[in-house]
Write a structure and sequence with these properties.
Layout (H helix, E strand, L loop, with lengths): L17 H7 E3 L23 H4 L21 E6 L14 H10 L4 E4 L3 E4 L2 E4 L6 E6 L14 H12 L17 E6 L2 E5 L20 H10 L2 H6 L1 H4 L10 E7 L3 E6 L23 E6 L3 H10 L4 E3 L5 H5 L4 E6 L5 E5 L17 H10 L2 H7 L5 E3 L28 H13 L6 E2 L5 E2 L7 E7 L3 H18 L2 E7 L1 H9 L33 E2 L2 E3 L30 H9 L4 H18 L3 E6 L1 E6 L2 E2 L15 E2 L2
Parallel strand pairs: 2-11, 18-19, 18-20
Antiparallel strand pairs: 1-21, 3-4, 5-6, 6-8, 7-8, 9-10, 10-11, 12-23, 13-23, 14-20, 14-22, 15-22, 16-17, 24-25
Helix pairs in contact: 10-12, 10-13, 15-16
Amino acid sequence: MSDPHGRRGDDSNPGINRRRWLQAIGVAGAAGMAGCTGGDGTDTATDSPTDTEGDAMGEDTPTPEGEVEIPEVGGTFNTVTSSPVDTLNPLYNTEAGAGTLIGYALDMGYTFGPGNEQIPQLYELTTDDGGKVWTGKVRENLQFGGDYGQVTAEDFVYLVQEVHKSDWAATSASSSWPETTTITQTGEFEFQIELESANLLYPATYDPLMYPIPKDLLEPYVAEEDSQGLQEDQELLELEFAGNLGAYTLDEWNRSSGQTYSRNEDYYMQEATDINQLFENAPYFETLESRVVQEQASRLGALETGETDYASIPPERVEEFDGLDNVNVYLQPQPYNEVCVYNMRENGWNAGPGNLFREKKFRQGLGCAVDKQTLVEGVFRGYANVEYTWQPRWSKWYPSDADVPEYGTGDLYGQDAAQSRIQEAIDNVEYDYSYDGQGRLLNPEGDQCTITLYHSAGQNTERSMAEFIAQEFEQNAGIVVEVNAIQGSQFSNQYWQQEIPENADELEWSNGSYNAGPRDVATSKNPWDMTVVYGLNTYPLNPLTAEVFFAKDSFYNPYGYYPSWDAPSLWEEANSAESTEELNETLSEIFVKIAEDQPMGMLAFPSSRAGYASDIVGPQENFFSGWDFPAWYREE
């Protein structure tokens, strides 16, 4: 879980920034190596936790300690990815897949392990004042490659002060370091971060998560304020400076076919046996190879024949692969949900005048139209759990003691539940929508309402989900849904992102293409109604990050949602909480409000279905599987 990015792909407010929404979105159906993505369980009963949920946070997962047998080093770990990556420059990458590839050769400051324990890698973050001032203690055995020498606190402080906080570099982490956050060097191997206000979950925001970059490498670009040069620097692109800072060394990067790595025999974590005794001689593979294999069938075939040690398994083939002697399938909890997003901007709801998606009761009616349990059982073959609000049930922040409305289940499912709420909504608008005697929703022209639903081309599970939603909407809401396949990049550029208005400076806000302004004036190039192309990160370690999805003027509101509840006040209260109890209470209220408001159709948390060669020792069925990837080995 060292990589905060996920599947399906800024301002100074402590709950929102550009880096977080870049981390928030991923590509439908993709899965990350080594536990960077995962799922919510396997049981289809929504009232009882699944086996996976039972230890989702890994509290009961044993970590080797004391006297253990150290494995032999040898062989190759093979993995496959679905597409090539654009960059391996750690300062500018924002993609999950590239983040994993970078991570083989270059660690970040820390990660999280079972039980949500902060695992210090390059440095450890601690606080003794409730979260306003954090101290970073850098390991003293870190060495850059080449002539760059030892890693010290100065390298991290210089990176932040002169690059991330600059107005020219525009790195992917720049907005994690607003002017109100200061970083200073307090010793050769110690730095201090001071926040504008206390944040108990600061490490879990990933804002203080840094790569180690040599000061001497950066200085020429800083002197010239050369952003393009920094992006194209060969040492950064090829990770040539990494020294002993990663488990493997990048040997070759072929842009179209993949990467080859060799074992880093001087890996600094070999001294971290207090964390995991197996780090003593890590890593345990002589080489690591990552190949680009775009077709899912080919990736699965490679796993079946032993040509790769890892591949993501689609729901309909889990049982098949789990029955193979040479493959183990791990159902891993993950934070990304399946959502049906409604376009509440001016070019949404194209079935008639107005935009019914903006009506809370209408959205509640749509929530009642889809049988979530049947969706989980049918489309995801039971390898998912129903979602009612913006947290998986295994999260410590899930409002288990609150009255969360369960739209799409029981009395809150079916034609009567859906159409009674939709009727309330259309009674509240100025346009003459109505139901006919056959339960069809008619627009003012007397035609049945017809809208579109987009899904990613080539994603079979996503297509099945879209078709099921269309069937349920027509049966229970009386709305015809036309299902359309589209390439993810095309949908992003032409539908999801908005065009920046010419008078952006005159608007109440204009925060870039993912929220270019108020929904009545800023729209995408093409009209659209609904989409299941994207799933979003619910951040079970730090739900404060989810504020970006539920603020009308944030940097990430492509769908134009305006909360009907006092979201700013509640998020401010959560961000300023002085204890976990206080935070839990406020978040519980927030999650109930989100469930009631139905900002989008919150449907399910699929499990990550990770298939590994059966002789690979290391993967776990918990949210943090992969945090100790350098200690994985092949059992003889």
